């Protein structure tokens, strides 16, 4: 396949500086660009991706909430290229040529405005910060984590096993990784303070119409600031303490931002991974014929979900360092590129027969390149998700959906791919 990019002459903008003025509203590429949100995208995103591919190819103009123009990278090869060439498509969002048009209360601003976080660091600084997180995660014993998750799963199942009915999204799929992650970071999994923190991080990433994501993010940041202060004074055998004690010498502000990133990246995507996998198991005949010991394994279901219903469907993003061409489109310096992870995973160019198999793990659900989810993060997420699914099916072997599959709805998020609820029925279990 030919190189997806055709760099033009570089601009005179320095790294980190704002690029040339944004494309005007009448720019042909964005005049009739679709909004990357709404009911159609929420319920049937694959149809939107199919339409965009037919009209624009692998790179399509879209608008974010508030009418902010961006590019959606739909192609597997193109996403891989963008994430592998930081010299062309960088992570520091201060390059964005749209900041002057973005209001202070823009819902996505908390996670896109530049912070002293590993998310926005580049080059040697990113390697330093990511190295700290990697070394902290490497201290987590996967066997002990599985034991912890099984204990958490058993306790959660006990709360509804006798009723014969449950709503698994909030009471199980959300609660289990939340408790596991905060415990790894040194917080009490059962405190109201912790519940509030995770709720606020969820709102920040996946806000409903009545939510205030900016206020939620600020509350979450204040809670993590208290945690860092506590761990400075009284360190323990937890991720927060290990990050603080690392020879790289992260400041408290850097540690706060990286812990927010770590918790947010581990909690909500893993929640969606668990729930999306349970949905597949309960609605697909390849699994549902015998859900506790089906013809295909839980591991295969988990992997198939990463291809077909990846927990994070879009990631914002990358910012063009200079004028360039990508997938036949002219990308201007400072333009925002949204990484269409779900679209790339289902790219017909990599599945030419129209059949998307789950027999390999070359999906982009954990990202790609230097800024991908740091190792061994994906392995730990797999331990949490696999233990959650397997324990539920062992305890409730005859579990079935309590509604018709078509009645299940998806949350209205352009970033996350997760159900609003997953109601189920099963034979009550006497404790």
Word description of this protein:
InterPro entries: Cyt_P450_B (IPR002397), Cyt_P450_sf (IPR036396). One of its GO terms (molecular function) is oxidoreductase activity, acting on paired donors, with incorporation or reduction of molecular oxygen. Belongs to the cytochrome P450 family. This is Cytochrome P450. By secondary structure, this protein is an alpha+beta fold. It has one domain: Cytochrome p450, CATH 1.10.630. The protein contains 16 helices and ten strands. Strand 1 (59-64) and strand 2 form a beta hairpin. Helix 7 runs parallel beside helix 16 (377-395). The model is unreliable at 5-26 (pLDDT under 50).
Short description:
With 431 residues, the protein is an alpha+beta fold. It has 16 helices and ten strands.
Give the spatial strand order of the biggest sheet.
Answer: 1-2-8-5-3
* Total count of strands: 10
CATH fold assignment: Cytochrome p450
- Average pLDDT confidence is 88
Shape: globular
* Residues in helices, as a percent range: 40-55%
- CATH architectural type: Orthogonal Bundle
Succession of helices and strands: HHHEEHEHHHEHHHHHHHEEEEHHEE
The assigned structural class equals alpha+beta
Alpha-carbon Rg, integer: 22 Å
| CATH class call | Mainly Alpha
Number of helices: 16
GO molecular function: heme binding; iron ion binding; monooxygenase activity; oxidoreductase activity, acting on paired donors, with incorporation or reduction of molecular oxygen
Protein name: Cytochrome P450
InterPro entries: Cyt_P450_B, Cyt_P450_sf
Biased composition (Low complexity): 8-21
